[in-house]
Amino acid sequence: MNKKMKLNITKVAYGFVVMALYLMIGIFALMKYLFWTGESNIGMAVFGVVVILYGLYRGYRSYKASQVPNDEKDDVE
After folding, report:
1. How many C-beta atoms lie closer than 10 Å to residue 58's C-beta?
2. What does the alpha-carbon distance between residue 6 and residue 8 come to, in Å, rounded to a whole number?
3. What is the chain's pLDDT, residue by residue, as a tens digit (77 residues)?
4. Rounded CA gap, 40 and 13, in Å?
5. Closest Cα to residue 12, out of 69, 74, 64?
6. Residue 43 lies inside a defined structural domain of this protein
7. Is residue 11 in a domain?
8. Domain housing 36
9. Could you tell me if residue 75 is inside a domain?
10. How many angstroms separate the most distant Cα atoms in the chain?
């Protein structure tokens, strides 16, 4: 494994952790403000949905950034 491949793996791991954190925060906000409180707070529930969508976007962007172009696949051991 060369240095560039190790860097790609660490970028993927970091991207996954960040995506998981955004998803957990978004799901928590969505569930808390819709179901756990006596009165639903739609504004904060929408915030939870936005955080979930942003987490999915970060995960997709991290996945696309980790892809090795076809001309460099021959160099990977």
Report:
1. 17
2. 5
3. 566 666 666 777 888 888 889 999 988 888 888 887 777 788 888 888 999 999 889 888 877 877 766 555 555 54
4. 36
5. 64
6. yes
7. no
8. 17-66
9. no
10. 59
How far, in Å, CA of 21 to CA of 13, rounded? 12
Which residue has tokens 């696949």?
A: 73
Q: Structural domain tally of the chain? A: 1
What's the token pair of residue 3?
A: 């240095």
The answer to whether 40 and 56 are in contact (CB under 8 A) is no
Q: Which residue has the tokens 């569930």?
A: 31
**DSSP line for 6-71:** HHHHHHHHHHHHHHHHHHHHHHHHHHIIIIISSS--HHHHHHHHHHHHHHHHHHHHHHHHHPPPGG
Q: How far is CA 68 from CA 13, 46, 72, in A?
A: 15, 36, 6
**What count of other Cβ atoms lies within 10 Å of the Cβ of residue 26?**
20
Domain-located, residue 9: no
